[in-house]
Amino acid sequence: MQNYVALGGRLAIICAVVALVLGLVNAVTAPVIEQNRQEEREESLRRVLGDREVGDREEVPKTEHEVVRAFYPVGRGGTGAGSYVLELTGQGYGGEMRIFAEVRSDGEIAGAVLRENSETREFGGRAENPDYMERTFVGTGAERAVPTTKGALEDEEAEAVSGATITFRGIGEALAAGSRFVEERL
Amino acid sequence: MGIAEFNKGIFRENPVFVMALGLCPALAVSWQVVNALGMGAAVLFVLVGSNVAVALLKDFIPAKVQVPAYIVIIASFVTVVDLTMQAFLPALSASLGIFVQLIAVNCIILGRAEAFAARSTVSSSVLDAFGMAMGFTIGLTAIALVREVLGAGTITLFPIGDFDGTLSVPGLAESPARVMLLPAGAFLAIGYLMAGFNGLKAKLDAKAARRRQAEHDGAPTAV
Fold first, then answer.
1. What is the pLDDT of residue A128?
2. Do the Cβ atoms of A120 and B62 come within 8 Å?
3. Closest to A22 (Cβ–Cβ): which among B79, B151, B176?
4. Partner-chain residue, chosen from B83, B91, B152, that has the shortest CB–CB distance to A25
5. Is A22 touching B (CB cutoff 8 A)?
6. Less CB within 10 Å around the terminal CB: N or C of chain A?
7. CB of A88 within 8 A of CB of A106?
8. Which residue stretches of chain A have pLDDT < 50?
9. pLDDT in tens, B43-99
10. A140 contacts: CB under 8 Å, gap ≥ 6
């Protein structure tokens, strides 16, 4: 009995010291990490919207929606502009991808950027090229469905995504879910 | 103790090529040279930190709870590296992704804690950690060099000043063998490098054995 107390006690001491150290490290790094994320978000918004402004960021809990992490209403004060910027997550070849997309209230994708991702550079990395989103996804989502299979693409577009089918599908599915989210809930 | 503790990790007991430890991150992140260097630095920090902590605490940690205690110590060093990288090297952190956190379960580190630091002094544990981490970094960088040069025709390092961090290999950059960037390429690169490394080691071992034999044969006539 006493033995277990001694064992547990020593482990508890180690854990307490570790917790203290990690707490200190977190206190130093957390604000910097938050600031990095903030800057990254602002830069992504600029890339999607140019000079147009957005209203307040509203987070969407993971339990509520699998793909949409947050959204911003476009326009000063965030009303009346009829479109939203969504922060989306998609499953790519190298793990999770993060996508910022502007979606009109009828579900049409008006613009999108793929954030730095761990896709294989030579293949999926192409999707970071602004042209890629423009040619493949922008303008879909309302009259024409967001393409999620290569069959839904024109030949020339299909050529552009070849070799990176998983990346393409991941982005397509995320954008399609974002389009539905805006149509149904916003 | 001494320089041998350091040396053995680099060549004779190289974690990647000889002991085949830590292959999961070695395969996963080695598609870019900068990843290999970043991963190596992270492993160096965790390995030195945990080896020192384990060597210092070896009399304090009861044998029955050795493994949980080591894991707590290792995981905390990993968390320190992870948070620091996210805060100050966000690009590297993004490209290494989950493999930084996975250092916590990297067998090199728990292996060194159990097999070496728990029975050694602090100073030889530090040397051991440095040697093993250097060996890991060398192994990873060698794999990454092969994969990136053949697969993308580039060598990506850190951007410094005007240098954007990427060297281009003429000829290969235009038509790279892209398979080398994919998982299959990782296995190919590691397989050939491992074979070459072990071939070299066998040659050196044979040479050393011949020298010993020659000394041995020579001895009676000298008496």
1. 64
2. no
3. B79
4. B83
5. yes
6. N
7. no
8. 122
9. 999 999 999 999 999 889 988 888 899 999 999 999 999 999 999 988 888 878 788
10. A108, A109, A146, A147, A175, A179
Burial class of A101 by CB neighbour count within 10 A (0 to 12, 13 to 18, 19+): buried
Q: In this complex, how many residue pairs, one in chain A and one in chain B, have their CB atoms less than 8 Å apart?
A: 73
Interface test with A, best of B34, B86, B89 (most A CBs within 10 A): B86
Q: Label the pairing between strands B154-156 and B166-168.
A: antiparallel
Q: Which residue pairs, CB below 8 angstroms and at least 24 apart, start in A149-156?
A: none
What pLDDT was estimated at residue B223?
Answer: 46
Q: For chain B, give the mean pLDDT.
A: 87
CB A83 within 8 A of CB A105: yes
Best mutation target among A24, A91, A115, A120 (most B Cβ atoms within 10 Å) is A120
Query: CA dist A30 to A22, B87, B110, B142, Å?
Result: 11, 7, 28, 34
Interval B141-157: pLDDT, tens: 999 999 999 988 888 88
- In angstroms, what separates the C-alpha of B94 from chain A's closest C-alpha? 7
Residues in chain B: 223
As a whole number of Å, the CA-based R_g of chain B is: 20
Spatial distance between the Cα atoms of B117 and B132, rounded to a whole number of angstroms: 12
Residue at B130: amino acid letter: F
